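#struct-help
A.M.: can someone run this one for me? Single chain, 172 residues.
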Amino acid sequence: MKSPRGAVGVTVLDGKIYAIGGRGIDNTFTVGIYEVYDPATGTWNELSPLPKARDHLAVVSADGRIHAIGGRITTSTDRTGEHDIYDPKNNSWSSAPPLPTARSGLAYALYRGMIVVLGGELPPNTFAENEAFDPKSMSWRTLASMPAGRHGISAAVIGNNIYVAAGSLKPG
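D.P.: on it. Structure tokens below:
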């Protein structure tokens, strides 16, 4: 990346890698930087920045667009349910219905055409809640919860299952 940072959201669309948001390298500020890497040319380019800087967010490509969902705005207790959609055809962002349970440190996956958001945190709590966004109807729905709240988790889809790995039962 041109702009080094941590807690960045990353997704792939049309053979390119998109890196959105994150925390500055000194970990004192959140950034809205948005960059794309083209493996064919080996170059990074900056795109229109995320409307509101955040880190520890979900970033998923669906239906030719990129969704930036939830995350942390400044401190560990400053969470958001914001949901912004990037359209690469015109390098612009638009607002979408917010994540019903604002949180960061969450897992996410594209499953059967829906963006599924799992777990996460808002100190002093971790979340067991799972919610799915349907890009076609532009609406959220609640899914079955995990047995216990976790954050700092990852998710992967294989066949008809979403697997959630690792994580902490306590925030921080």
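A.M.: thanks! Residues 103 and 121 are 5 Å apart (CA to CA).
D.P.: also worth noting: The longest strand covers residues 9-13.
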